[in-house]
């Protein structure tokens, strides 16, 4: 029996069981064989789809909540699940409205494909518009979270277009129909570079959409698994199917204050915090990031873990993670601009209170 026929048999068996469970078919088993045979023939004659392994050119969207692990550890599990389900419900409605297919949910991440099973000429523009709409929806979600005593959520979204393999993956114990390939891996690497509220698109996606989108300058980064460095573009706006802007630029506006604050930090290799510690000095801080002065140059787009000492409030905000946005040499020192990627609610509030208090004294 071919795999195609075996799939039809399995579906026929499930339909038979459902009919009995719903009371639409007698529980007696004497006619089961005849019913199964009839269902099997109908499925095969109607071209019941055989899930072959195929290669498709699609656009991939991968979203991830920044700092979700800290949120999960800081709030009751039941409240976190409810908040996550509200998020999935809102994002799911947007995704389906733009013709996307949710491939899988991975913790707080959503993997979406445009171009399979149905391919459209508008797949790229739909994927881009979907990403923008998802970021725009976060404001209402966070308003709801606030009324329920839950924290704001910030999402990073990556978009990439390329060739993938679609097929059944797994064994008799568990399997799923999903996508695999280098372009899927690249999308994951791009997502790792996303900051809070940011949408990053690949060179391939940019080439197919540059006539109707607004982006920042290319940011050349090294990504694991890629032979050469790749250019990433931050998406600011799209004109298709209608004009929309990504709201993140407004969301990041914050007072900035001059400080002289010691910083101890460690570099990250992937998700592993390296043991060696370095000293620096924060000379400028805002709600969402800071500028630190170091003896050595930090690598652009790299991530660090640090501890900040907020002396005025006798508060120490630990386990703060940040990504290096820019770095330049000033005299014999280096000034490194960075934005927070993961920070606990307590630490975020401490930094905001510190900035607000300092603004009030200047």
Describe how the helices and strands are arranged:
Elements: H1 3-21, H2 32-45, E1 54-65, H3 68-74, H4 77-97, E2 101-106, E3 109-114, H5 123-147, E4 155-170, E5 175-180, H6 182-192, E6 199-201, H7 203-209, E7 213-215, E8 219-221, E9 230-238, E10 244-245, H8 248-251, E11 257-269, E12 272-285, E13 289-294, E14 303-310, E15 315-330, E16 333-342, H9 345-360
Parallel strand pairs: 4-6
Antiparallel strand pairs: 1-3, 1-4, 2-3, 4-5, 6-9, 7-9, 8-9, 9-10, 11-12, 11-14, 12-13, 13-16, 14-15, 15-16
Protein name: Adenylate cyclase
Pfam family, one: Guanylate_cyc
Organism: SAR86 cluster bacterium
Describe this structure in words.
34% of the residues lie in helices and 37% in strands. With 362 residues, it is α+β, with helices and mostly antiparallel strands. The chain has three domains: 8-45, no CATH class; 54-245, Nucleotide cyclase, GGDEF domain (Alpha-Beta Plaits), CATH 3.30.70; 257-361, predicted glycosyltransferase like domains (Thrombin, subunit H), CATH 2.40.10.220. Strand 2 (101-106) and strand 3 (109-114) form a beta hairpin. Helix 4 packs antiparallel against helix 5 (123-147). It is elongated and about 85 Å long. 31% of the residues are buried.
